[in-house]
Amino acid sequence: MKILLFLLLNLSFLVAKPVASVSIAPQEFFVKKIAGDSVEINTLLPQNSDEHTFEFKTSHLSKLEKSDLYFTMGLEFEKVFLDKFKRNFPNLSIVNTQKNIHFLEFEEEHEHHDHDHAKDIHTWLDPILVKTLATNIATALKEKYPQNAKMYENNLQNFHKELEDLNLQINEELKGVKNRKFIVYHPSWAYFAKRYRLEQIPVEIAGKEPKISDLKRIIKKAREENIKVIFVQPGFPENAAKVLAKECGAKIVMINHLAKDWDKELLKSVEALKKAL
Ligand SMILES: [Zn+2]
């Protein structure tokens, strides 16, 4: 029995897949689309945690250590740890998933903002920008595993086509929608809003809880402009959203902008907007 177990362990080591790490679950969806089953994907951010305040701990290192590739997303914890990763894991290729993206800046109300923090990194909610992310992912995979290059290229072409179709579908779904404004707790929908001529009105400003004066301003705007939907992500404080919803007569819709089922969640948000607007 012991010998058998020993053999099995050794065999499983022999057939172990290479590991690629990503920061957030939507990237897991994208890498899977291109890599198929050729790599095991390790997602650093646990479900229902806040991508901006996530604290990377040494317990997260073990899988990263085994990774050939790490696809970054410009998050706060990456800025703190990337240099350490580079130093400790010389064989880990660190890939900027958002290469060639033209970033939007957060609209911040105070003057003393740090430019580095003003960059809006939520590019993964726009299917057309995801084409660029996918191209970057495919390029890195092809370089790392040239034996699979053909498959990656095929998968990339198919995924690009799916993203084009999804874009057309969302445009079509939102065609008749007249009131194109929505309130969102965490302002992660700027690229999506820009793509589909919508307007997100954020509750949270520069990562901070709204003040009473902010809430009053938003309620006034929501009433004047007849805004009917408030997006809230799981794990976020709902109280402010509930107060808002009651005051404006709007509906709270739970949308997870970090969902692993990326395409389904995007369509779910489109459906919510269509119904509410
Ligand atoms: Zn965010």
What does it look like?
With 277 residues, this protein is of the alpha/beta class. It folds into 2 domains: 14-170, Nitrogenase molybdenum iron protein domain (Rossmann fold, 3-Layer(aba) Sandwich); 176-276, 3-Layer(aba) Sandwich (Rossmann fold). Helix content is 48%, strand content 14%. It is built from 11 helices and 10 strands. The protein has helices at residues 2-14, 25-35, 61-66, 76-88, 115-118, 127-144, 149-173, 190-195, 212-224, 239-248, 262-276; strands spanning 19-22, 40-43, 67-72, 93-96, 104-105, 119-120, 181-184, 199-202, 229-232, 251-254. The protein has a 4-stranded parallel β-sheet, sandwiched between helices. It has a 4-stranded parallel β-sheet with strand order 8-7-9-10, sandwiched between helices. Strands 5-6 form a two-stranded antiparallel ribbon. Strand 3, helix 4 (76-88) and strand 4 form a beta-alpha-beta unit. Helix 9 (212-224) runs parallel beside helix 10 (239-248). The model has no long low-confidence stretch (mean pLDDT 89). Zinc ion binds at residues 51-52, 122, 186, 188.
Beta content comes to 5-15%
Structural class: alpha/beta
CATH class of the largest domain: Alpha Beta
Q: What is the CATH architecture term of the largest domain?
A: 3-Layer(aba) Sandwich
Mean pLDDT: 89
User: How is the main sheet built?
Assistant: 4 strands, parallel
Strand order of the largest sheet: 2-1-3-4
Instruction: Give the cofactors and ligands.
Output: zinc ion
Report the CATH superfamily of the largest domain: Nitrogenase molybdenum iron protein domain
The count of helical stretches stands at 11
Helix content, binned percent:
40-55%
How far from one another are the termini?
64 Å
Coiled coil: 149-180
Protein name: Cation ABC transporter substrate-binding protein
Pfam families: ZnuA
Signal peptide: 1-16
